[in-house]
Description:
By secondary structure, the protein is α+β, with helices and mostly antiparallel strands. Helix content is 17%, strand content 38%. It has helices spanning 12-19, 38-49, 151-158, and strands at residues 61-70, 73-79, 83-87, 92-96, 100-107, 112-125, 128-138, 145-146, 165-166. The longest helix is centred in the first third of the chain and has 12 residues, at 38-49. The chain starts with 11 loop residues before the first helix and ends with a strand.
Amino acid sequence: AEMRVVVSDTNPAASLAAADAEADENLADPLEVEGKTRPEALHELLLEKADLAVSKRDAITSFTELAMLNPRGRYDLDMYPDFFTMHGKSYSYKIMYANVKRMFMLQKEDGDVLFILRIDPPIRQGQMPYPFLTFRFSETEEHTIQINLDQKEIDEKYAGKLAQEME
């Protein structure tokens, strides 16, 4: 299902106010934000009111271009306190940590390491369900990630399981 909203670039309340010198101050436009177009302001207002606004700055950490076998492709992974998101070329997913039922790490003979997540309910691409997410890592590759939390928060919440920088 698709929903389209048409937002003009002009403020109808402002044109009414110009016609009527005694215009009511209640005609102030909620989409009048300096430096933003009205459609951008509407988008931000809707995300804020629906409590959907999650900024990439809020991510605890991010991985770029992770190779995945199921579903096939390369995905950017952003990890947040309660969920993680996967963004590919065609699909994006939001997966709650509570939906991760099992985790496996398997060593392949060719030196690759597979990290497999069992999720319920499975993600879908069209009619195809994917109950397992399979990430492929090369054993010879090293990744360093930055944890976007201050040291006090890391110590309180994760009690030595995380460091500010991890390899």
